[in-house]
Amino acid sequence: MKLNMPKKYLILYALMSALGVSAFIMFGHHLSMMLEDIIMEGAAPGVDGLMWVALFFLLYALMSALYKVVGARVANSRVEALAGRVVSTIDDQTRKHSESMLNAIFVHLEKYRPFEKVFIPTVIQTMVKLTVIIAAMFLIHRNAAFIMLFTAPFVPLYYVLVGLRTKDESEAQAAQFDELGTLFLNLIRGKNTVRHTGAEDTVIGKLKQYNERYVKETMHILKYAFQSTLMLEFITILGIGLIALEVGLQIIIFDGITFYAAFFTLLLAPEFYNALKVLGIEFHNGKLSQGHLERIEEWLATDSAREDYRTFGASSDSVALEGVSLGYGEDMLLEDVDMALPKTGFVAITGPSGIGKSTFIHMLLGLHRPERGTVALSDEDVGYISDEVYFSDTTIHDYVSDGEYEEQEVVHILNQLGLMDSLDNLEKGIHTPIVNHNIPLSGGEIVRLKIARVLIRRPSIILMDEPTEFLDATTEALIMEHLAEIKQEAAIVAVVHRRKLLNIADRHYTFSNRQITLAKGAS
User: Which CDD domains match (predicted)?
Assistant: First the structure.
């Protein structure tokens, strides 16, 4: 199995493992000598002997604890780097695949972490430990060393065979989890659409089907785990038993071994076979974890291969659709729609809940690929305002400016939206930190803050999904006044529920019967 670990970490693990097992062997050496003097010679334990035993035991315990700490830190840093690769791919093009992204980050990454944190350190530590113990046993008791060499290969051989099958099962389980999680999250996100299209029975049936398949794959893996544990215990007991029998025969019948060598051998034998047992268990777990890594890499490879289905700059209109069909398989939201929107002006879109208005906006954003047809935009500079925008750990200033605008420009746009009075009352003003999505503003003020982030850029196309849904009448009037100014130089396409926004609309489209049509009386 490929460890996929930089050499510097492999060398560090090997050196620490060698130091730890050497400390254990020295502990066993001094303990065996001290016990031989006590039992065979009848001498009292010496202070020097006790000190050496205690010193090497403490060193062994210290190295074991330190090894775990170092392994955990290295693993966490590498998993965080892998998570960074996943997060770096998140942009406007990947939101439509957010379920797979969430599974990659929150499920597969965490299930892969034991591979870095436990499996790789265990493999290296075990290989070093087995090598050093075998070398020591050839100096202490050659017969026991040969028994170890004869029985040890049965564990890795068995686990290679079982692990290969486990890897296949784990990949199937990970795939089933992705399908189940994706379907469930899509159901939550698009519950209105599912209800509107009458697809409840279909979705429930698919959830049940994926759940049954996931449980089946999980039970297969548990079966292999049980069989593997049983075989491990058998091989371990057999190996230790053979060595104990050989040592007993040497002591009782052949008189060919000293007490020192016999005790030392029986001390090292369990350590040797326990290391093999741990390696076997972790080999099984490592294969499970590796299956999750492959799901992450598959997601990253798929994401990097995606292409934007939209074209830019070729259209004289801000938005141009030709033969666009949008939907989910047989449940279409739009069919063969042709549409052209001017480069400036306010376009309002209305229609029943769940009919596909938000999905239409997501399509324009590049978040939802249409089944067929072409989507052309006049410019790549597209702003998006929605209540689905989330705050990262930042400050109000950095959130609005996005690192591109000076403080006076940020203050200007916030002042235009009537936010500076509230922000001036905060201890740190516009530099107030936003932590864990917690921001000390009201719902309407948060909406205006999100609008400020887009309007400060002055994009040529602005897409809005319910932009004034949570605003009071006064604030809504303020936003409408600002939008009325912006629409003179930009195209604004907004899904609206509140009818007041229609007062500033230059065009009003409605969704019905899988079409987008101009509302009666609209220009």
Answer: ABCC_MRP_Like
Domain ranges in the chain are: 7-304, 311-518
Give the DSSP H/E element, type plus range, for residue 331.
Answer: strand 331-341
* Dist. CA 95–CA 71, nearest whole Å: 34
Token pair of 279 as six digits: 């390696």
CATH code of the region 311-518: 3.40.50.300
Which residues make Cβ contacts (< 8 Å) with residue 64, sequence separation at least 6?
A: 20
Q: How far is CA 244 from CA 241, 249, 250, 279, 507, in A?
A: 5, 9, 10, 22, 90
Domains 7-304 and 311-518 share a fold: no
Amino acid 96: pLDDT: 44
DSSP per-residue letters across 417-462: TT-HHHHHTSTTGGG-EEBTTB-SS-HHHHHHHHHHHHHTT--SEE
Look up residue 51 and give its two tokens.
Answer: 């000190």
Span between the terminal Cα atoms of the chain, in Å? 67
DSSP-assigned states of every residue in 119-130 = IHHHHHHHHHHH
pLDDT tens, position by position, 63-81:
999 999 998 889 888 888 8
pLDDT category of residue 22 using cuts at 50, 70 and 90: very high
The answer to whether residue 345 scores a pLDDT higher than 80 is yes
Residue type, 76: N
Give the separation between CA 69 and CA 63, rounded to whole angstroms.
10
Q: Pick from 500, 503, 505, 390: which is nearest to 449 by CA? A: 390
Per-residue pLDDT band for 316 (boundaries 50, 70, 90) equals confident
Secondary structure, 3-state, 365-378: HCCCCCCEEEEEEC
Evaluate whether 318 touches 380 at the Cβ level (below 8 Å).
Answer: no
Instruction: Please name which of 297, 299, 300, 293 lies closest in space to residue 117, comparing C-alpha atoms.
Output: 293
Distance set, CA 385 to CA 138, 266, 362 (Å): 73, 71, 11
The predicted model gives 98-113 an average pLDDT of 63
pLDDT tens column, 302-314: 654 456 778 887 6
Query: 45, 34 in Cβ contact below 8 A?
Result: yes
Residue 56 in tokens: 């090497």
Tens of pLDDT, residues 434-443: 765 667 777 7
Provide the whole-model pTM: 0.51
Q: How far apart are the C-alpha atoms of 300 and 268, rounded to whole Å?
A: 46
CATH 1.20.1560.10 fits 7-304, yes or no: yes
